[in-house]
Structure prediction request, 255 residues.
Amino acid sequence: MIMASRIIEVKDLVKNYGKLEAVKGISFDVYEGEIFGLLGPNGAGKSTTLEIMETLREKTSGKVKIANLDLDSHPGEIKQLIGVQLQQSGFYPHLNLLELIDLFAGLYNVSVNPLELLRSVHLEDKAKSISKTLSGGQRQRFSIATTLIHRPKIVFLDEPTTGLDPQARHNLWDLVKKIRAQGSTVIITTHYMDEAEQLCDRIAIMDEGKIVELDSPGKMIDNLVASGFQRARELKPASLEDVFIQLTGKDMRDE
Ligand code: ADP
Prediction:
């Protein structure tokens, strides 16, 4: 087996907000081409960790390397290698999607075919719409499109499916898989365990500023079962979500 190379290296990362120790010395690596999940209850330190890797937040101590570049000495170069999902409030309300992509491409100083990019996230029909008129799923797909403009090596997605209906969620999973297939590494946070199980090659589960487990979803489940854990009730071979998707389809419904 060929060992994938480490694209993110985090060593003994600490972040204190005043007296609060939000991240308490965590270490992990992310391999090139992975979909890597960061999970944990609210307040666990996920966003803080993500924002430090995204160069948006100062760390207290520790080492972070992105694509072999040290975060302390090369933040500018790192910014060019990563795609960070912007919050919706970052979009100018009066510009349509084509104009917004042109604007971002200008900021990144790259040339892009805006219509092709919109097509890749199934928004070509909305090219002339302003972002305010998009549905939740469309908005998420558009905000992901904006992270792809400069063809980043690493894409950071912070809870991209929160609040979406099952169709939109499944479509977004397909999109995340497509981004990986095109050669990017994806770091994603989510509160949905089915999503993490479906999408992520490996997961770090954080709690109270520490990583309490880091492994593939399958291995984590096997470990739990091996420890003697048993479900209260045997699960059926399909879920209610499977029923819902079978009955109502996976087609885009967010027009
Ligand atoms: P998560 O993303 O897992 O919900 P966060 O990284 O947002 O966790 O927060 C971790 C802890 O740090 C929480 O207790 C939160 O209240 C605190 N925190 C986050 N941002 C700040 C900030 N800017 N100033 C002070 N405390 C913060």
Summary: The pocket of adenosine-5'-diphosphate is lined by residues 17, 20, 22, 40, 42-48 (CB under 6 Å). DSSP finds nine helices and ten strands in the chain. The two ends are 44 Å apart (CA to CA). The mean pLDDT is 91.
